[in-house]
Specification:
Elements: H1 3-18, E1 22-24, E2 36-38, H2 40-59, E3 64-67, E4 72-74, H3 75-81, E5 89-94, E6 101-103, H4 104-110, H5 120-130, E7 144-147, E8 150-153, E9 163-166, H6 171-176, H7 178-185, E10 191-200, E11 215-225, H8 230-248, E12 255-259, E13 271-278, E14 284-294, H9 296-305, E15 311-313, E16 318-320, E17 323-330, H10 331-342, E18 343-348, E19 351-356, E20 367-371, H11 377-391, E21 397-399, H12 405-415, E22 419-423, H13 425-429, E23 437-442, E24 448-452, H14 453-464
Parallel strand pairs: 3-10, 20-21, 20-22
Antiparallel strand pairs: 1-2, 4-9, 5-6, 5-7, 8-9, 10-11, 11-17, 12-13, 13-14, 14-17, 15-16, 18-19, 22-23, 23-24
Helix pairs in contact: 3-9
Bound molecules: glycyl-adenosine-5'-phosphate (GAP).
Length: 468
Amino acid sequence: MKGKETDTMEKIVSLCKRRGFIYQGSEIYGGLAGTWDYGPLGVALKNNIKNLWWRMFVDDREDMYGLDAAQIMKGKVWEASGHTGAGFADPMVEDKKTKKRYRADHLLQDIGVDAESMTLEEINAVIKEKNLKSPDGNELSEAKLFNLLFPVHMGSVADKTSVAYLRGETAQGMFVNFKNILDSFHPKLPFGIGQIGKAFRNEISPRDFIFRTREFEQMEIEYFVRETDWEESFEYWRKEMLKWIELIGLDMKKVHELDVPDEERAHYSKRTIDFEYDFPFGDRKELYGLAYRTDHDLGGHTQGSKVDLSYYDQDKNERFIPHVIEPTFGLDRTILALLSTAYTEDVMGGDTRIFLKLNPLITPVKVAVFPLKKNDKKLQKKAREVYDMIRAEIPEVMYDDNANVGKRYRRQDEIGTPFCITVDFETLEGKDGPKDTVTLRYRDTGAQERVSIHELLATLHAKLSTKR
Ligand code: GAP
């Protein structure tokens, strides 16, 4: 890790805990590695991102069908998809003394060796040649492949046939429901299935906060096309993904497209573009992916289940297995990228101020309302009226009368609230006349203006783009 970025990462992790965005999973029992719990502001941020994604990619399109499939799936699904094999496994080494396990390619990366496309034999040869030790300075075992799927035993008898798996990707839920969607909706090709949900991977070394975890959320699309149309569709979805990245407010200068070379692509893909991001832990890493999965999955499940997953084109009187373009978006990585882009420090009123410059479309709290004075009953009553009026149309509004106004502004800045409204004595003096105004304060500049209460909702809607 590099100095400045590590610093930013630590500040983000600390802010997330302090302000109720993200906590360590099972924290009071010492934590469970690779799991994180989203607190009240974290879940609000997550929901806003998910809703925006769902609106853009499912609700606003005629060619998309939404799905929420089970997270536990039959073992046969993962055999047919190829995930129980070497294609969904990472090279693992064990510290012979402490028994701690590590990703062999990560240990090599730490000494400047890129092992991403190396075979196990090559990895073992480099470990031997460099006499590589564990981070605790002990001898390492030979590298071997470690499968990332989480097995679960269903029911009361634990035999081989009862093994199911927590899904390693949401994608398979969409492939196994392909025929259901065909039978219920009779869509015409091209069309897609979209899903948001949890995925689980038994990562050998979860790290970098919510970047690499064992339980995470994906927002995925499986878009079904004729084989001859895959390149056109791939290019279309590449542009859609860039539109999304821009919409949510990521820093486009930190986004890089990588055409993944043959030997580094997932077992199911014939072409993949990784959308990489300059993350705050000092590395350029995968944020999202776009893959051409061919007919690997529908073909594999047709064979595995003996159920015909072909598509019949009535107009052309043709039956075939569609090919798939898959845009996939990791939700937790989206949040880490957004927080790192938004985290800002400046000097205001002689003090260092921390604020999250989040896009108002996704901030957990959109508006905060304060009475100028904490103990003034009339100010409180009026502020409550303004709060109730806003809440009826914009639910993500917060009322705060704790401490002085300066401190309240700082607290809202830290969680990214774009607009703060203060009800003061001038507000009280106005009786539906020009004086019936409040102070509207902007997060990014700290600038303030007076706005009439009558125009407040329209002003907020316009600034927040909350009316469709
Ligand atoms: N269905 C395709 C698929 O699962 P992937 O590249 O393995 O492809 C898709 O994962 C996205 O899921 C990644 O781009 C990343 O954003 C997210 N992701 C993958 N593994 C993750 C992990 N261990 N922790 C957090 N996010 C992860």
